[in-house]
Amino acid sequence: MMAAEMTAQSHLVDRLPAVRGRLSADAPLAQITWFRVGGPAEAVFRPADRQDLCDFLAACPADVGVTVIGVASNLLVRDGGVRGVVVRLGRPFAEVRVDGDRVVAGAAALDTTVARTAAAAGLAGLEFLIGIPGTLGGGLRMNAGAYGSEIKDILIEAEAVDRTGRHHVLTPDDMGLSYRHCGVPEDWIFTGAVLQGRSGDRAAIEARMAEIAAARTGTQPVRSRTGGSTFANPPGAKAWQLIDQAGCRGLRRGGAQVSEMHTNFLINTGDATAEDLEGLGEEVRRRVRERFGVELRWEIRRIGVRVGEERP
Question: CA-CA distance, 49 to 34, in Å (whole number)?
């Protein structure tokens, strides 16, 4: 009887290695996501530094899932929450500095911070990052891009830690980067990168960044509870046009809605669940597929389990 009670009271964190950073059990995630939906993480780990992350991963039981998240701008957490450990890189991984004509940045650095740091140093070529609402780590994971440029265009090298705790330095060729795709194993965690800039006129760089920021504000529902672009553009087409032509502008499901402003964005109108948002996205995919024979690929990253879904 006592053994059964102890088993019932045990928690995943009891199986995890000691850390120098912070380890939290049953941590809520909804309020850190831009959609403001989703269940809790079974555990959240915020490493003190890269060595803390390496040591944790090396000692973490192999059967425990590990998921990394950034500022959750392009993320949908399902309502049943996330099993295993969610790793969230914080301030120790957010440093940005200029080294000659290069920018060295941690994976937790905001893309906008990287862009502004480069601009302040008179480095051109990184202006497009002002239009990407996420962290550098997320940008590396999906080869993020905007306004005609993408991460692979400016990347010199990236650093990552694999599931066994080994540290790797990767070149763009190692990473298999293509449109909204990175070939690095999903369970590797990016910790930083070196980006290439070029000497430019600071006033012109800042003007271009202001132009990009204004274009984003004027065409995307940035003041709503939304994520980034929902679907990647299919070859030779634009996702928003296909969605619009399939009659999905303003389409609703529960508290979720396809944006009237930009149809490649989903919105939480106030009381949406993750199930509403994902279900609406799948309905959009179905309509586009039936109308045009095109299979839209999710660009929003979806993690976790649905309510009532068994642990994998």
Answer: 26
Over residues 82-109, mean pLDDT: 98
Query: From CA 189, how far away is CA 137, in angstroms rounded?
Result: 8
The residue annotated as part of the active site, out of 46, 83, 159, 229, is 229
Q: Write down the pLDDT at residue 98.
A: 98
* Domains with residue ranges and CATH for the chain: 2-91 (3.30.43.10), 93-217 (3.30.465.10), 221-303 (3.90.78.10)
> Which pTM does this prediction carry?
0.91
Give the whole-angstrom CA distance, residue 216 versus residue 129.
12
Place of tokens 């000659």: 100
Residue 180 annotated in active site: yes
- Which of 135, 26, 9 is CA-nearest to residue 85? 26
Q: What is the pLDDT of residue 77?
A: 98
What is the rounded distance in angstroms from the CA atom of residue 161 to the CA atom of residue 244? 41
Known catalytic membership, residue 299? yes
Residue 229 annotated in active site:
yes
Complete DSSP assignment for 40-61:
-EEEEEE-SSHHHHHHHHHHS-
